[in-house]
Amino acid sequence: MQERDFHIDSSMTYGDMRRYADRLNVTISSELLPAGVNGIYDENLRMIIIDRSLDYTQKRCTLVHELFHWTYFDNSCDPILHAKAEKRTRRLTAELLVPAKRFDCVDPEYEGYAALIANDMNVTMQVLRDYKELVLDRRQYA
């Protein structure tokens, strides 16, 4: 199956991303979601729902994450396939939102202090952790 494509970059705000995503063949809405659920993608409905209680940085990261699920037509109830899709989606989100060259400059500036790095890069702590675990480690051993 061919992947869907979207063109969002790390310099875009949540508003920029949302306006761009409105042109894609996916419905994006905002609702209050259960605790611990930031976003949902439903392939059958081609719908992304973002928790409206999130701050803009969280919404930005969640929208990118859910757009990657949309890109790969993710909608599996199979726990093994879901786990693989989730890991892939977290890695791709981190790769997109944490550009390697920028991270390499910011990391020493903040002496590795994760909260400052995440704030500077406008990403959540989870996205920064995913970058370090799923992208940076892979990059070092490539």
Break the fold down into its secondary structure elements and pairings:
Blueprint: H1 14-21, E1 27-31, E2 39-42, E3 47-51, H2 56-71, H3 79-97, H4 100-109, H5 114-121, H6 125-140
Helix pairs in contact: 1-2, 2-3, 3-6, 4-5, 5-6
Morphology call:
globular
Cα separation of the termini: 28 Å
Characterize the largest beta sheet: strand count, sense, and whether it forms a barrel: 3 strands, mixed
Low-confidence stretches: none
CATH fold label: Zincin-like
Name the structural class.
Answer: mainly alpha
Strand order of the largest sheet: 1-3-2
Q: Please state the average pLDDT score.
A: 91
**Number of structurally distinct domains:** 1
Strand content: 5-15%
CATH class call:
Alpha Beta
Instruction: State the helicity in percent bands.
Output: 40-55%
Give the helix tally: 6
Number of strands: 3
CATH-scheme architecture: 2-Layer Sandwich
Q: Over the alpha carbons, how many angstroms does the gyration radius reach?
A: 15 Å
Order of helices and strands: HEEEHHHHH
InterPro entries: IrrE_HExxH (IPR010359)
Protein name: ImmA/IrrE family metallo-endopeptidase
Organism: Bifidobacterium fermentum
Domain IrrE N-terminal-like: 24-128
